[in-house]
């Protein structure tokens, strides 16, 4: 049948199983939005307040569901407004397809109104990108984009479509069965390199098993790839069979039950004593789906010097990229662990686990500096967990509140902690929460934000209100850019340059301006009362939760230091 480009876009999205797209219209993409209008019963479109919110919503949708998230924007500034969201997805290996429309082909390269070379702009931050210059290639390009985004190590793909292509017509033949390998095999030559993941090499598996069986002090360093692969069950079986403690990166904080005795929680700059010392004193670090971020290893020359490094990863480019590995297994984490677990021996490691447990008991004291006028972040996490339960999604922005959530929130189920890791994107969480809520009407989300980050995306409250999304936002309000202020206190002589945010807005009044219920809490008793009321209302709410501006994130490893050089407590002269 003969269809125009806009119709082909809609048909291909539905063919790929897409049910929701996030975006913002504009001149160059009008033809596609006209088709969205005609197909509103087949495909839901969520209008965000800003294109960046659309990108983060698509990202949050993908993280919560494991499916490809889709966002779209017009040319020029519409397209560039997606860039931070695309980069966020790229750094955390999130499957996303971003569709932009450009000026017509005859206007390309002429500095036309709202023209931008968005494929050039996004080349470093996409797994692949396309500009469609022939209507006959449009359907295949969209299919390839989805296959690339979700196959192998996932990532974002951008498709740029000139406006005249969206109006041109060609023959369209729907796919009866979607076979990603076949789509890629028949696709553009320059992307055939991508993508199929081979079964793990038997020799690599055997070598890995021998290392594990010989180890006396092993520790697992679990990364976000465990969650992306869906290998949580396999990780649990693997760790319990050999009684190996499990440390987690920020992206993996919800991939292993926090209440399991083997869990040592987060490793790295703000990791626990048990995780950081466990890695330091181990004789074998088993990295699974992790990329050895600098926030994990600190000083590379002093990282795990007593250990051999066994790295399991789907992407061979990650092996020895940041930390030299002794041995590796290339493959999908779920597949590798399912094959490796039968090859390892049951073990107990009693003395090693006794030492791990001793380190678990060493943690900074958490106290209220002014219990009548501020709320302890640990209490906030524990109270949210108590009321909201294990099935509630937790999103964050980036900053102290994010680290407190990673340090204190007792995640027991996977894909419930949605946060920006690699790029560290302030302004991420509200859009991501919208994506999660739109993925399934039964989802509940509590968004933990800092007042600095929430300034960057509170415009999306318009989206929350318009679609009646039951999002509860807890603003940990310390009237400061807390993380930066903390570094200024420790390393810049208490020169608090441009980090004091004592000039509004009034979050309660802002909530009410959007027709959303606003609350304020200045102490633990007030927070417990208003959070329970807000969450159980089943409606959108904002809670202005007052936190002391000098509350610290401890433990802390100064940048570039060894991860065993943790600051556990601060002296009075530092805090005064």
Instruction: Label the structural class.
Output: alpha/beta
Multimer state = single chain
Helix content: 25-40%
Largest sheet: 6 strands, parallel
Radius of gyration, CA atoms, in whole angstroms: 24 Å
Q: Strand order, main sheet: write it out.
A: 3-2-4-5-7-6
Distance between the termini: 74 Å
State mean pLDDT (0 to 100 scale): 95
Tally of DSSP β-strands: 20
Q: Please report which band the strand proportion falls in: under 5%, 5-15%, 15-25%, 25-35%, 35-45% or over 45%.
A: 15-25%
Low-confidence stretches: none
Shape: globular
Total number of helices: 25
Explain how this protein is built:
With 576 residues, the protein is α/β, with parallel strands linked by helices. It has 25 helices and 20 strands. The strands form 4 sheets. The chain has a 6-stranded parallel beta sheet, with helices on both faces. The chain starts with a strand and ends with a helix. The model has no long low-confidence stretch (mean pLDDT 95).
